[in-house]
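Per your request, structure below.
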């Protein structure tokens, strides 16, 4: 994981027609088992856990969580025991995600949905402490102040890699949003005159605006004013697919020989193309799409 991930230009006539230049920040090419924004969000947390003398990482996620997989892989690789607190009931046999986590040494425990919703509350945390203490606690999705710091480095790399621009509309950096940690970090690391647009992949994710501001307050002391969230491209909700999204993914692969990750990246990319084609992105804008993870 030495050096920055590549920044490459994508040539596409539909964007050229709309006057938009698109660059891809290929974080999907980082690492193997701990890839993309999961690595960005974990790296400083792993340092902090080690500095604080912790040997165990405890975190939260749904049964298909990429964050759970990444934490299990990170524990295996960097020598931490790991505990995954999974939403809902245990279902056996384990699905591929949880089976992978267990294969990397993660101990799984389950929280019923109501308790899971309150997972940040003192009662739930105290319960976990009683059972598993000591541990270094990573929030769901790994989004905390140190994750914001790790994701700010994506923006710093982009700033160094993007060719110097002619005076024109502000550069627009785009990312998909689950918990909003990546967006919070990107916005924190950009140059003046650049903006970030996050694409929510959950339906009804109105919590995102508050959450991104909260994460920025925690990491920087105050929120920045250079970001916004689009709620128009979630395709019905988390991990939902529409025939139109499937067609977009297939067409993108035909044209560019890149397989888009379906849960997050494809929704962002479809959103960028839709906004460009309806001229909602000012012609002359340079867009950077952060490819936050690989197709699995
Ligand atoms: C986990 C994940 C995200 C979500 O990032 P947040 O920081 O939670 O918003 C985005 N893209 C990919 C590919 C992911 O795996």
């Amino acid at each position: 994981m030495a050096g920055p991930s590549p920044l490459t230009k994508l040539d596409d006539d539909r964007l050229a027609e709309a006057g938009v230049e698109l660059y891809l920040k290929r974080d999907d090419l980082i690492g193997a088992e701990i890839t993309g924004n999961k690595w960005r969000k974990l790296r400083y947390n792993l340092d902090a856990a080690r500095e604080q003398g912790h040997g165990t990482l405890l975190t939260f996620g749904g049964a298909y969580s990429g964050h759970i997989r990444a934490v299990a892989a990170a524990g295996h690789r960097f020598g931490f025991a790991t505990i995954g607190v999974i939403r809902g009931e245990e279902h056996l046999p384990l699905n591929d995600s949880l089976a992978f986590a267990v294969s990397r040494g993660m101990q799984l425990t389950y929280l019923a949905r109501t308790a899971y919703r309150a997972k940040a509350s003192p009662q739930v945390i105290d319960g976990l402490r009683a059972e598993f203490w000591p541990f270094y606690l990573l929030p769901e999705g790994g989004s905390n102040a140190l994750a914001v710091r790790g994701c700010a480095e994506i923006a710093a790399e982009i700033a160094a890699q993007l060719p110097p621009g002619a005076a024109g509309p502000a550069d627009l950096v785009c990312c998909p949003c689950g918990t909003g940690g990546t967006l919070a970090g990107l916005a924190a690391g950009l140059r003046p005159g650049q903006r970030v647009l996050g694409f929510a992949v959950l339906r009804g994710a109105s919590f995102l605006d508050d959450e991104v501001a909260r994460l920025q307050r925690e990491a920087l002391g105050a929120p920045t004013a250079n970001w916004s969230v689009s709620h128009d491209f979630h395709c019905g909700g988390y991990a939902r697919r529409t025939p139109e999204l499937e067609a977009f993914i297939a067409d993108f692969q035909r044209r560019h020989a890149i397989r888009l990750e379906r849960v997050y990246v494809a929704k962002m990319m479809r959103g960028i193309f839709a906004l460009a084609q309806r001229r909602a992105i000012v012609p002359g804008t340079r867009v950077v799409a952060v490819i936050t993870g690989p197709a699995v």
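The chain has two domains: 7-31+144-290, 55-134.

Regards,
D.
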